Amino acid sequence: MRSISLHLRRALAVLGLAGIAAAAPLHAAETWPDRPVRLIVPYPAGGGVDFAARLIASDLSKQTGQNFIVENRTGAAGTIGAQAVVQSTADGNTVLFASPAEVLVSRIAGQKTSYDAGKDLQPVTLAGETPLAVVVNPAVPARTLAELVALARKDPSAISYGTPGTGSTMQFAGEALNLAAGIKMLHVPYRGAAPAIADLLGNQIPVAIVGVPPLVAHHKSGKLRILAVTGSQRIAALPDVPTVAQELGVADYRYTNRFGVYVPGNTPAAVGDRLAALIHASVHRDAIKAQLAEQGVEPIGNTTPEFVRFLAGEKARYETVQRKSGIQMD
């Protein structure tokens, strides 16, 4: 039997994830995958996570000779998709491809779920990340983030911002922006990025905070205007767009749409290790990297211990924003 290392066990305990540390036969990875694998994306098609999931799934199918099939299971701020994975057999054939929000934010923001994400979802790897974008309809009289902030300060009720949902990474980015700039933009939750972008294009909302990939073409065509990205640096896909940190002078402002991979708790560790290795190979393949880069996605593909440590840091950061802003799921 193969047991998880002591340092990882301690890291898991910090997150309340100790239940995932069950040992697993090494031979499990030798035959996996032996049938089609479902990649559950808990958001509608068309968003940044969905884009990355489909690109990676296609490459995983080529690597393994088995079909990796993306299924969009939406609703309840991503928890319906997460629940589908939790309730599946712990054999690696049902995988959650989602923002860490589905593992962390639901607990931080008080959402009631039928499962314990800390015990019932086993982290595998962080496949990649892309900055979010603060984007406006061209009718908004702001060509910079500073000008948008000035509008919000002048009339606090005039500016609302759409996101893919309550408790999403995007809402946390928006509330962190409110806190950093001393403004009170009103949050408007949608059921995914696609409907938020549709309403932004139709000028039903003035501002949105969503992932970069579905916005690039709209920005370049002039249909939308990206004022800032939320990562730590500018991105190749949008070299002329500054970061929120640069615009506001807030060095520690950094929010990205991350693509985490999880399997049901008690999935054999060897299967998780093989999946992590396959995803690492996929996202660092030149052809895949180029397609990801076109949409502003940075490949990562880290190890499970690295991903667990990352989750611990994110949990502390999100808890601070939740406490100051009062974000609640229920």
From TrEMBL:
Gene3D superfamilies, sorted: Bordetella uptake gene, domain 1, Periplasmic binding protein-like II
Tagged with keyword Signal: yes
Keywords: Signal
Membrane-spanning parts: none
CDD domains assigned: PBP2_Bug_TTT (cd07012)
Signal peptide interval: 1-28
Superkingdom: Bacteria
Keyword DNA-binding: no
InterPro entries documented for this protein: BUG, Bug_dom1
Similarity section: Belongs to the UPF0065 (bug) family.
Protein name (database record): Exported protein
Organism from which the protein derives: Bordetella bronchiseptica (strain ATCC BAA-588 / NCTC 13252 / RB50) (Alcaligenes bronchisepticus)
Organism lineage: Bacteria, Pseudomonadati, Pseudomonadota, Betaproteobacteria, Burkholderiales
